[in-house]
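Board notes (copied after class):
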Amino acid sequence: MTLKPSLIATSLALACGSVLAADLGFLDLSSGSSGFSNTPIAGSFVDTLTFTLPVPSLANGSVTTVVNGNQDVDFTSVALTGPGGAFAFSMLLGDPVEVWALPGSGASLGAGAYTLTLTGTNSAGIASYGGNLAVMPISAVPEPASFALMLAGASVVLFLARRRRD
């Protein structure tokens, strides 16, 4: 009777397939950008990297696969999640060399902890990938149109003040 539960557990473990989840560590973005790379094992993988933003920032990033001979990494998704929401990277270039990047002008992220998750499969030839994530703090500097409107308003106030003195 004790053999039956262990046989069921073994069967379930084998049926789940082999997906390797790897925590690649913490990205240090204190200089404004950080590179990363990995050579996952053959088969399915889920790699994660984490980072923390002390202030709201604009983020840009890309990931590129490295191909040589029969080596091939195929991503199924690259996503950035955290308090600013979930941002999916878009595939810009497909096989044999895949390039994934945050779309448009990047992602506006709030302060807090974030996770970059790279999901895919690696060939038996064991290929690699590399990427970069860059952040720039969002400042409170007004846009040019707002700044021009403030200058126009200040000019009118100065004009009226001088006119009253004369």
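Comment from the instructor: The first helix runs from residue 3 to 15. Residues 76 and 152 are 52 Å apart (CA to CA).
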